[in-house]
Structure formats: structure tokens, C-alpha cells
Amino acid sequence: MYHAKLGDCMLTNCTTKESLTAEYLNSRECDIPIVQRYSGVDAGMLIPFIAASILFTIRMAAKSQRLGGGWGADDFTLITAYCLAIAVFALNVSMIQHGFGKNMWDILPQTNITEAYKRFYAFVLVYKALISLAKISVCLFLLRIFQSSIFRYITYTMIVVNSAIAVTWILVDSFHCIPVHLSWTGWENEESGKCIDFITSTFINGFVNIAVDAIMVSMPLYEVLKLKLSLRKKLGVAVMFGMGLVLTAVGIARVIILSSNDSTENPTFEMEPLNYWSVIECQVAIICACLPATRAFVVHYLPGMLGYSGNASSGGFHTSSNTRSKAGPAANSSKLGFISKSMPYRIDTTATSPQNASDSLVKLVEVHSGRT
Fold first, then answer.
1. How would you class 354 by CB atoms within 10 Å of its CB: exposed for 0-12, middle for 13-18, buried for 19 or more?
2. How does residue 11 score in pLDDT terms, banded at 50, 70 and 90?
3. Alpha helices, DSSP H only, in 98-243?
4. Is the pTM here over 0.85, yes or no?
5. Which residue pairs, CB below 8 angstroms and at least 24 apart, start in 341-346?
6. Inter-residue contact 93 to 40 (CB < 8 Å)
7. What is the mean pLDDT of residues 26-32?
């Protein structure tokens, strides 16, 4: 009862800064420990970041050797996304160092609250751009593989949708407070202005991204099932593309975390779990986008890891034209000791002739020693 009346008194007669100071002194007087929800470099965020960095490096190495196809728009889009992933990780660490994850009244000096909110403002914008760029990179990659007209139409649509999501929410989050600087000084309650409900906006964005993730995962899986491959090979390729479900699961976890935390009373403490899962989501997005090229790299250098014997070819996707190599399969196989098909990077899954049906075999899987 005493604390409730004290709180009402502070809200009525004190400024926000004075109320926070009073709450801090009261907590120290009562020996209430200062709680730090997350450390600056938490293992839960660091491990996905390291994994994303390793797979990104492997993808760049694979591309430089033309494994998994040559350089394309998907690669340059992902390079931008990875740079943003580094920024997201660094901004979150800086936010924690300036007080995010602590009770608001335990953040001293109070200017650190403003500094933390400045970083949070940038964090949100970078996060929205990164997630959409990573998904656009995946769409561009799929366009290099599948040639079905319906599939390509849907893929181009998803590129437009992801671009629209990025532009819309970057604008919404950039100007969710008018004047804009209230985004990082509004906690002081010393200046009038107007801010939209950030939590509602974040909820909507989360649900939209989950729906987009589900569509994007289903797109390549459907195409793979139509290919004339053995069940084992279909499952191998499907599992690789199906890893996008991990990103969907993280997005769902992020929405659940957001709904279970009341960020209105103690935002610096309650919002950090959202930041935590946002960092993880960003790294998982990079990981998923790097899996095909990583697989090509592993098949080429460590074929035994994926159940292949002997030497491997490019282990992934070719960028050759729609005709077979003029040198013939013998010239290719004599050098590496296996049957190599000069395959198109684009795949026409609607082909019906024996010749085209053979050529439509996805170079995600290889032909070794005469075995398919």
C-alpha cells in the first residue's frame, strides 16, 4: 500500500527523471539487486552470429571458385544483408551496455537511457531492412534455378512484397514519433508530440513476415517434388530448402515474446527479449540464405560428409547454357573420375522428352560412377 501511494505521489508531483531517481534510491534502500537481463555478448546471440559468419564466408569462397554458380544479384544482396547483420549485433551489444535489459530506474547516468533509445531506433530500422534483403536474396537465387513460368511469377511477386514490407515499415518506424527525436527523448515526458503504438506496429510486421516465410518455404519444396529424382535426393534437397522453417519458428517465438512482455511501464527491461530474438532471427536469415552454396562447397571438398564417394564436381549449381558441353561427358569425367553433366542453372521442370528430362536433373545432387 505504501509503495502504491508513493508511486501515485511521484507520478503526480515529480518529473519522470525525478521519479526514476526516487525509485532507484528506494530500491537501494531496500537492498533490491540490480538486474541485468542479458550480458552484452550472450551465447544465445553469439553462436548464431558466428554460425552466420562462417556460412557467409563459405558462400563467398564457393562463389569465388564458381561452386554453386557464379556471382549474381542474390550474392550482392546477401552481402548487404550480412553487413546489416553485423550492425544489428553491434547495436544490440551497445544498447545493453547503455542499459537495455535493466530496470529503467537502474540506468545511470540517465543520459544513457537516451543513448540506448537512439541505438534502438537505428536497430529497428536496420532489422527491417535486413530481413527483407535476406528474403529477396533467396528469391533471386530461386530465379536462377527454377524456370517454371508460374513459379517465376510467384517469385517476382514475393520480391515485390518483401520490398514493399521493407519500405513500408522503415518509413513507419522512422516517423513513428513526430517530431522524430521523441523516439529517443520521449521517455523524459518533457516535450509534447505524437507517437503511434510501436508494439501494435511490430505485431503486424511480425505476422506479415511469418506469412511471407511460410509461402517462401513452400515455393521451392513444391518445385523439388516435381523433379525426376530418387526419393533420397528429393528429401536431401527438400530438407535444405525446408530449413527456412527455422526462420519461421524464430519469427513466431519473437511474436510470442513480444506479447508476453508489457513494455509500457518498464520498456528498457521488457523490450530487450524482443531485441534478443530479433538478433537471432537476423542471423538465422543469413544462415538459411547461405545453405545452398555451403552445400556445394562441402560436396566439392568433403563429399563423404553428405554420403558421396569419390571426387565431387561443383557440388551445386551451374551457370552453363541450356546445351550440353561440346567436349562431351567423357572429357569432363576423365579429369575428375566421375560422370559429370553440364547442367543448366535454370531448370525446366515441364520438359517431357527423355533428353530434357535427363537435363532437368537438379545439380543439387550429383551423378557418380554411373549411379543416380
1. exposed
2. low
3. 111-143, 149-174, 182-185, 198-226, 231-242
4. no
5. 341/367, 342/318, 343/318, 344/318, 344/320, 345/69, 345/144, 345/145, 345/317, 345/318, 345/319, 345/320, 346/144, 346/145, 346/146, 346/147, 346/322
6. yes
7. 90
